[in-house]
Amino acid sequence: MEVKVLDITGKETGKTVTLADAIFGIEPNDHAIYLDVKQFLANQRQGTHKSKQRNEISGSTRKLHKQKGTGGSRKGSIKNPLFRGGGRIFGPQPRDYSFKLNKKLKSLARLSALAYKAQENNIVVIEDFNFETPKTKNYESLVSNLKLEGSKTLLVLPTDNKNVYLASRNLQKAKVTTAADMNTYDLLNAGKLLLTTSSVKTIEESFAK
């Protein structure tokens, strides 16, 4: 699959990049995508939810009234879960929501997400670039020149670039990552996938290993 290469002004450079069929042309595996996205979202959960049980409530332990003769039910403590302010029965406790997935499955999920982007023609390849200063207006100009205003974009760089990252950080619908940190959730969550010519090579080399 050949894609035209654009510059940061949105104009065609006359060059093309061939996206490898072994990466961008595979048959997507929906179940692998589901598992990888599920793991990603589970790993974001803090798991710090907590409610107090009966033995953790502060309050008097005296018996509220005598056992018999009142005509009512027996009541042993004000901390009874049935009373207002009492402990909670089977309430949430801190836990770890993360779980393990095999590396091959996660790799298949990323390949499937890339294949979906290629099938939907949602991949834009641009020349390698850099910003002299980390200003938001620089990244806004890039998105505007590519006519992607209002679209969620994910820019994948071959390596870390501080200026480009800082320029995009204040934009709600823009995200910048590296080829090594690219994940399935971000790929699917983005409307358009922006790749530089170098990041295409980096992605192909990483999946070829």
From TrEMBL:
It comes from Solitalea koreensis. InterPro entries: Ribosomal_uL4 (IPR002136), Ribosomal_uL4-like (IPR013005), Ribosomal_uL4_dom_sf (IPR023574). The gene is rplD. Transmembrane segments: none annotated. Belongs to the universal ribosomal protein uL4 family. HAMAP family: Ribosomal_uL4_B (MF_01328_B). GO terms for cellular component: ribonucleoprotein complex; ribosome. One of its GO terms (molecular function) is structural constituent of ribosome. This is Large ribosomal subunit protein uL4.
